[in-house]
Design brief:
This protein is α+β, with helices and mostly antiparallel strands and 372 residues long. Helix content is 28%, strand content 26%. The longest helix is centred in the middle third of the chain and has 17 residues. Bound molecules: adenosine monophosphate (AMP).
């Protein structure tokens, strides 16, 4: 095992669990700093492997392959939060794993996540644990309707969720998520959704990018507007919440913190945290072209023990995801003056699949009004 406090110098090797677009962009950022990446993932179609120095195609429960992979790198990180606990444990025996297992365990389970946030005084939607019909009835009694029933684990892009508008629908909602262990959350009448991408280094320093506004279509992130239209005090509060979360988790790396913004004039806090993602985040892709140091470089800097870069924004930006056949517009986008095009090299443009994104920059203070 390497010395945990020594920085990983140029020439060092980073192991990345997961071979998707986030791993690919992390690998490219590592290369810019003279570091190399080795990808570990079971998938045949792994865009990160195309740009990495090394690749291991093996299952996440292949203890021997995991040990070999971890022995061959200086630090292990990941691009998705559902890394099995046993996988993280094996990796941790052979290498430094950043972010660490506490962050993984916290972000993987919505009850653990919200309990952690509440314990640190960070506002969330009201929530209750659901594990059978009796606890569902008790949760509904406590929280009321409208509310949202979500699986505790493995939910993403609106999957594993069901809205409950009236009490009678609760059993159907529970059945629709397969009666999996769940959380019932009060429905938040938010004005809009924001996120903060924050980094924490091994020395405890934190750096938060400006809060951004996220617009979803069919539960998938469609556009990110940087910055979010928040007054300075609320923007500062959002950054402070994100910084507190990474500090409390003794976190190293980049995290995405998703929040709801309640309308002006409501009683109580105006920012509620919905979810934390212990990894680089889709809502941080705008930083590639609008900041001197992108979220990907920032994550590499953090996990390698380097000083964090400045999260300052030199331009406003709108990031648009290219989902499924949107990517067929690549010729038009390539010809658009000033459009910064990022394609992931995925072979098949299946519906709902993230194929690339485009960042459009605007002078500071002049980003277009959000189309919601
Ligand atoms: P999640 O999987 O928790 O990120 O939820 C996906 C989306 O569902 C969010 O981006 C919100 O638009 C919506 N949503 C989730 N939880 C709530 C809630 N408690 N109240 C209102 N909308 C929600």
């Amino acid at each position: 095992m390497k010395n945990k406090s020594a920085p990983i110098a140029p020439g060092g090797r980073i192991g990345i669990l997961g071979g998707g677009q986030l791993g690919r962009m992390l690998t490219l950022a590592a290369a810019e700093l003279g570091l190399t990446a080795h990808i570990y993932c079971p998938d045949a179609d792994a865009p990160a492997m195309d740009v990495a120095t090394g690749g291991t195609r093996a299952a996440y429960d292949d203890a021997e392959a995991l040990a070999r992979f971890a022995d061959g790198v200086d630090v292990v990180t990941y691009e998705f939060e559902n890394v099995p606990a046993e996988t993280a444990r094996i990796l941790g025996e052979h290498a430094i794993v950043r972010p660490g297992v506490t962050a993984l365990a916290t972000a993987q389970d919505r009850i653990v996540e919200k309990t952690f946030l509440a314990a640190h005084g960070i506002p969330t939607a009201p929530f209750a644990d659901v594990h059978d019909d009796a606890s569902l009835a008790a949760a509904l009694n406590a929280i009321g309707a409208p509310s949202i029933l979500k699986t505790r684990r493995f939910g993403y892009d609106g999957k594993g969720q069901a809205k409950i508008s009236a009490g009678g629908e609760a059993r159907e909602a529970y059945a629709s998520i397969g009666r999996a262990p769940a959380i019932l959350e009060g429905f938040v009448p938010f004005a809009f959704e924001i996120s903060v991408v924050v980094a924490r280094g091994i020395d405890g320093a934190t750096a938060a990018y400006d809060p951004v506004e996220n617009v979803h279509t069919n539960h998938i992130l469609d556009r990110t507007y940087a910055p979010a239209a928040l007054d300075a005090a609320l923007a500062g509060e959002a950054r402070a919440i994100a910084a507190k979360i990474v500090a409390e988790l003794d976190y190293v790396g980049v995290m995405g913190v998703e929040m709801f913004v309640l309308p002006e004039g409501v009683a109580g806090p105006r920012l509620l945290v919905n979810e934390i993602a212990p990894r680089v985040h889709n809502s941080g892709h705008w930083t590639q072209d609008a900041c001197a140091v992108s979220q990907f470089e920032q994550h590499i800097r953090a996990i390698c023990g380097w000083p964090l870069g400045s999260p300052a924004r030199h331009s406003d930006a709108v990031m648009t995801n290219l989902i499924g056949i949107d990517v067929d517009d690549w010729r038009k986008l390539a010809a658009e003056p000033g459009a910064c095009l990022h394609l992931y090299g995925k072979s098949e443009a299946r519906a709902g699949r993230k194929m690339g994104h485009v960042n459009r920059l605007f002078p500071l203070g002049s980003r277009p009004v959000t189309a919601r």
